[in-house]
Structures are given as structure tokens and as C-alpha cells.
């Protein structure tokens, strides 16, 4: 069952005064936080009848042909975004074919900042005119100030001009600011993240981010976002934190999911907990964009009265 939630009654979540500097914000916030490193070994036995096995990946960046590990079987497969390099049609087709080979009964996918073609707010300025056409007055292209992140500029132009790209994902369920319920397990997915290189699903830190998180319902089991919250799986190799302060506050104060699955920061791969919520950075690619990190697997207990054969 899928539900698009247009309005959610929320408690007031304050904007942290240091929200624009998550590294400094975390330095202050961490004084009252617990960050517990969690070692979660892949299950060695079959899944119990009253549980669903969830297999998580993220940030595969069109490199699935180079994955050397096996994808564990399970009931639900979750991909937390950045399944392409820039969202070109060929990349999305390749990903759809790959995910179609996986045995999981339910496959849930959200977009990330690399899926340029999936963000209508990003592609809109490009689709009605030649995005590479240079201004007669300035000699500048609309793409000249857009970081390429290692992609050829013509590939980016091609990606953002691809219409109806979501229709290509026929072998999974793509969700965007949506709730999906599987055997009573409530999963909500959102692709947004604090501004990063002007790419897809970027919003400024602070209130614009919080307005996205305010759409998340409170009674969910698994939250899937592309961005990490501040303090969990968000530490970059430079020593800077990239996570969202208001996302952490929303999770801890209001939403309180059992699991939060995300990616985005490759070097943040792994599992942590604050004592209540388990945070899963499932980035498959490491800092060198090599798909070396295996999927993270956990079992979720079904709500009373729910069965997987329904």
C-alpha cells in the first residue's frame, strides 16, 4: 500500500542556531547525545515467520556490474539513492535491469543528489530550452556554474532533458516523500538533503530542510533518506560533518523510527545507535567510488496480526 501524505500534524521542531555549520552544531549537540557503534553481522539463519529481513544498499553509482560480493536474500530490499552517476536514461535502465535480477519480493528505491533527472525542481529550467545555449550577452551557459562531479557536461545535459524517467523503474517501487506499508511495516522515503554542489533534491539548511522533514509521519518503522542526520554516519574524510541538524532533531523528538537508512557520505558507512534508533549508512561505494561495502541486513518484527503470506 502506498500513501502520498499531503499534510502532517507536527510538533514544533526548533531551528538550531548553528544549523548552517553542522560540524559546530554537532560539537554542541553531542554533549547530550549517545553514539553507539553497532556491529551487526549478517544473519546466519533463515528469517523467522514473524519477521521481515531487510537488505540495504545505497550509492551504487552505476557500478553494480563491478560488485564482487553476493547480495543477501531477504524480504525487502532498500536502496537509499545515488544509484546513478547523473541520472542518464541509460544508467536508469541498467539499474532497473540489475534490481530486477534480485530475488527480494519488495524492492524500495529513493533518489539521491546524483539522480538529476528525477528532480522536477531541478530539471524544469532545462527542459523548455537548450540548457547549453550560451547567452548572447555573457557568453555563459546555464550549466557553466554547475559542478560536474566528474561527469561530462553533455551527459548532464542529456540527463536533465530526459522526460518521465521514473516510468523506467518497473522492477521496484520508487517512492518520493511517500509512505509505503508492507506486512504492516511502515516505510517512508525522502530524497532531499542539505544543499550540496547544487545538484538534485538540494534545499538550504534550516527551515527549508525542516519543511521536508515535517512531511514525515511519526508512526513509521523505517525511515529512508538520502542524507544522514548530523552525528551519525555523516563524518567526511576532511573532518567536516555533512548531516542535517533538523533531521536528527525530527527523528529523535517526533518521528522515532526503529531504523533510519541513508547513504550520501560514503566514508560514513556503518551502523550506529543513539540508544533508541538504529542509524544505517548503507553506502556501497567507498570514498574512492569503489563498490566495496557489502549490504547491511537486519530483521524487523512484524506488527501483531500481520503475516508475510497476506
TrEMBL record:
Gene3D superfamilies: 3.60.21.10
Transmembrane feature ranges: none
Domain Calcineurin-like phosphoesterase: 53-267
Record-linked SUPFAM superfamilies: Metallo-dependent phosphatases
Domain of life where this protein originates: Eukaryota
GO molecular function: hydrolase activity
Matches recorded under PANTHER family: CALCINEURIN-LIKE PHOSPHOESTERASE DOMAIN-CONTAINING PROTEIN, METALLOPHOSPHOESTERASE
Record-stated family: Belongs to the UPF0046 family.
UniProt protein name: Calcineurin-like phosphoesterase domain-containing protein
Amino acid at each position: 500500500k502506498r500513501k502520498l501524505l499531503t499534510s502532517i500534524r507536527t510538533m514544533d521542531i526548533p531551528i538550531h542556531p548553528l544549523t548552517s555549520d553542522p560540524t559546530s552544531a554537532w560539537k554542541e549537540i553531542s554533549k547530550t547525545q549517545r553514539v553507539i557503534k553497532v556491529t551487526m553481522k549478517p544473519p546466519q539463519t533463515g528469517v523467522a515467520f514473524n519477521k521481515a529481513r531487510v537488505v540495504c544498499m545505497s550509492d551504487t553509482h552505476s557500478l553494480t556490474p563491478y560488485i564482487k560480493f553476493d547480495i543477501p536474500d531477504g524480504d525487502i530490499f532498500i536502496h537509499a539513492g545515488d544509484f546513478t552517476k547523473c541520472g542518464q536514461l541509460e544508467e536508469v535502465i541498467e539499474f532497473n535491469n540489475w534490481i530486477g535480477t534480485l530475488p527480494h519480493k519488495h524492492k524500495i528505491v529513493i533518489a539521491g543528489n546524483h539522480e538529476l533527472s528525477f528532480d522536477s525542481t531541478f530539471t524544469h529550467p532545462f527542459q523548455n530550452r537548450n540548457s547549453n545555449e550560451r547567452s548572447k550577452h555573457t557568453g555563459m551557459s546555464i550549466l557553466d556554474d554547475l559542478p560536474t562531479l566528474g561527469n561530462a557536461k553533455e551527459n548532464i545535459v542529456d540527463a536533465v532533458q530526459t522526460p518521465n524517467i521514473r516510468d523506467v523503474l518497473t522492477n521496484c517501487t520508487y517512492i518520493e516523500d511517500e509512505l509505503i506499508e508492507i506486512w504492516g511495516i511502515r516505510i517512508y522515503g525522502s530524497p532531499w538533503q542539505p544543499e550540496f554542489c547544487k545538484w538534485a533534491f538540494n534545499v538550504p539548511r534550516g527551515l527549508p530542510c525542516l519543511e521536508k522533514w515535517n512531511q514525515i509521519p511519526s508512526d513509521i518503522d523505517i525511515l529512508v533518506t538520502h542524507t544522514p542526520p548530523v552525528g551519525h554516519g555523516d563524518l567526511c574524510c576532511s573532518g567536516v560533518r555533512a548531516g542535517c541538524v533538523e533531521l536528527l532533531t525530527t527523528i529523535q523528538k517526533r518521528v522515532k523510527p526503529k531504523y533510519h537508512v541513508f547513504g550520501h557520505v560514503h566514508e560514513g558507512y556503518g551502523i550506529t545507535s543513539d540508544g533508541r534508533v538504529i542509524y544505517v549508512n548503507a553506502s556501497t561505494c567507498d570514498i574512492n567510488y569503489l563498490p566495496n561495502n557489502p549490504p547491511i541486513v537486519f530483521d524487523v518484527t512484524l506488527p501483531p496480526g500481520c503475516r508475510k503470506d497476506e
